[in-house]
Task: structure prediction
Amino acid sequence: MRQLTPIFWVVQACLIWLTLVSASPVISDLSDPNVSALQARDTKPFPLRILPLGASITMGYKSKDGNGYRKWLRQQLRYAGWEVDMIGTLKNGTMHDNDHDGHIGWRIDQIAAHAKTIISQQPNLILLNAGTNDALQDYKVDTAGKRMDSLLTYLFDNIPNTTIILSTLTFNGKNPELGTDISTQYLELAAERRAQNDRLVIADMSTFIQWDQLVDKIHPTAAGYKEMASVWWAAIQEAEKEGFLEAPKSTTTYNGTISKTREKQLDDSTGDPSLPAYTAPPQPTITVSNDSTRSGQWHLWTVGVQMIMVCIALFYV
Result:
């Protein structure tokens, strides 16, 4: 057998080093702001069992018909081809499908305490708008994000296939700086959750609903509620685009499907609701420093050079 010379080991070391360098991951920004929103299709693969969860804005307080954003959003979803059943422990508004869980005056902690009563309904989509009353009452604002995080954990743990759309707060004219603080905490929380691959999407209400679209410095006007529907709709499209949405599970009350007869009973209209145009900002992300990437690449180069130097030294031994 021919004896392997030191130069052979030099070549092998170089090949190993080149393999390591070529196999090192290249980190790139996968988000493309130019990618258009997912276009609506005529039919969808499963129904949406939607839980509107929050306080008085979720209920539709101060809207003349009591529907708030819910009727506009439901009509948009039906127009896009989704079968929809809104669920909850309360009913409010003139719309047929008027179930919801919006409780006047409730803070995050009160909604969290109530959450155990809604688990059995197993929604596959939760629209969560909470925190305005925490701001209005100046209640532990600095921990709003942590308390919301606990609520999200409970919901995800007990409704495994659900997608949660978390809303930032609409403008309030009484404690606006506290509302902004809570919204900022939510954006940071969403970035962390999304980095962990949670099925969470932010619906950013804070920049779209303005102070002149509020009836009492807190609750939206009819136009404001319709704009809220636009923001929810954009977030639902984002959830669909990212592949978050799944079919609802069957329960003792819901069998996972909606019959045509039932859908007709729930529908008010399936026509185009002509929601206001809205362009959603990019979903929040955690900024990763390039220093770690450079460090890893520099480490590979250092290892390669050291291997070559060792082999050259062996050649002269």
In short: The chain has ten helices and seven strands.
